[in-house]
Amino acid sequence: MTRPRAPRFLLLRLAAQNVGRRLLRSLFLGLAVMIAVGVGFSGSVLGWTFRHGVVTSFSRMGADLVIVPQGALVNITSTLLTVQPTDLDLDESLGAVLRALPGVAKVAPQRLVRAGAEGRAINLIAYDPAQDFTVQPWLPAGQPTPSDPSSLLVGARGGEKPGDALTICGRTLIIAGRLSQTGVGPLDESLFISFAGLDALAAAARGSRPASSTRQGGPHEHHEHHGAQECLPDLAPGRVTAFLIQLAPDASPIQARFAIGQIPGVKIVVGNPVLTAARQSLGALLWGVTAFAGLLLLSLLFVVSLLFSAIVQERFREIGMLRAMGARPGQIVSLTLMEAVLLTGLGSVIGVGFGFLLIFVSARSLGAYFDSLGAPFEGPSDAFVLAAATLSLCCGVLLGVLGALVAGRHATRLDPYRMIQMESAP
Fold it and tell me: Which residues cross the membrane (predicted)?
């Protein structure tokens, strides 16, 4: 039972001896793999961080277009981030129509209502956390996005702070986060709730509204109706105040506005065209960086393949003797692959550690610089970092295996006698 295992250990021993025979060359090859894996790993993590920070910064600059009801009076500066109070609204189903239009990347519905909370009037803006791209980016770095429908976000000028409780329509809501200062009044002075939370409040308001408030009557009945309205007005379901739109990187703003303009009953508010063009260019730049990283890996594959071709060629006489002594072609290929795994595997492991060092140095230097500019610099989750490290390590080993496989298979196709007669490299 132990006889089949002996050749494997013999091949592994030979591979280790071959690695140590040309120590300087092995060190340079391992160093190349280490640098490639380290730069690839740290580049993926830092690239995600930069992209997240830049995308968040552009999201903080507002939407490219805002769709409001025809006849609504809006302030262009304010509507880039959120809606303004208006008695007009749109059907929620219009969002599906907008998403289907060419050039539209994101559609974020919002609904603003006037509500009463603990004896004072507030602006309550409902948003969809899954589709929002203008409100949640203003959360401070590291603060998670609230997922509980009974939670609220408060603008920078609001009197509440995270952890405070606010009673609306008999329901106690918790302030889950406080947005950073934007300089836009409607966003800094409002409270934000999810559409699910607003539906729950509307149901509570309908339950607390006296039955007599639905009848036309005397002053007492009107006072009861007015008291119910201080909590929350009677909201029609499926209505929104506006849709905030972000265009795709390759979209033409003019064509997008023309397509949206064919929808009756809406008005288009245009954001800053300079910011739109800059954000769209960012998307093309990120794709270019990804393509460059792919070409870097491809060039590393060629380098590793060339080096192992030279390694195999200088051992033609040795490999020919092994073949003449009965070594099978598969064993010759296995010997080359084991040597590649030893070199690239060790280089990849050290490369991952080198990548962590690069990330640490960048976080200490670039992170402080981004903070001084007020731009977010928040790294990805631990799961993403672990996946990037594992993928980089596997790619480093795989490149070595592929390069050695090409060279090893070429050696097995030659005649053993001719290989013995060949001159080995000095």
Answer: 27-50, 285-311, 332-363, 383-408
Cα 184–Cα 185–Cα 186 angle in degrees, nearest 5: 100
Residue 349 CB burial class (10 angstroms; 0-12, 13-18, ≥19): middle
Q: Six-digit token pair at 35?
A: 């640098």
CA–CA distance, 150 with 193 (Å, rounded to integer)? 8
- The per-residue pLDDT for range 343-399, each reduced to its tens digit, is 888 888 999 999 899 888 887 777 777 666 666 677 777 888 898 889 888 888 887
The pair of three-digit structure tokens given for residue 338, joined into one six-digit string? 């084991």
- Residue ranges of alpha helices (H) inside 127-215 are 185-188, 195-208
Query: How far, in Å, CA of 365 to CA of 68, rounded?
Result: 44
Q: Which 8-state DSSP code applies to residue 194? A: E
Percent of the chain residues past pLDDT 90, beyond the cut: 15
**Domain boundaries in the chain?**
5-58+280-421, 64-271
Helix axes 23-60, 273-313, angle to 10 degrees: 170
Closest CA to 105 of 133, 83, 80: 133
Per-residue model confidence as pLDDT tens digits over 300-349: 667 766 776 666 666 666 677 766 776 676 676 777 777 777 788 888 89
Distance CA 200, CA 113 (A): 14
Residues present in the chain in total: 426
Q: What is the pLDDT of residues 72-108, one digit of tens each?
A: 877 665 546 677 777 888 999 999 999 999 989 899 9
Task: Give CA–CA dist 163/170, Å, rounded.
Answer: 18
Cα angle value 393/395/397 (rounded, 5°): 70
SS3 149: coil
b/e 303-322 (16+ beta carbons within 10 angstroms → b): bbbebbbebbbebbebbbeb
What do you get for the CA distance between the two ends of the chain, in Å? 41
Amino acid at 186: P
Partnered with residue 149 across adjacent β-strands are none
Dihedrals φ, ψ of 83, to 5°? Answer: -85, 170
Phi and psi at residue 160, to the nearest 5° = -80, 160
Residue 325 φ then ψ, to 5°:
-85, 0
Distance between CA atoms of 201 and 183, rounded to whole angstroms? 29
Token pair belonging to 301: 């594959």
Tokens at 365, concatenated: 């230097």
Element (H, E) at 55: helix 23-60
Residue from 97, 156, 49 nearest 376 by CA: 49
What is the residue type of 358?
L
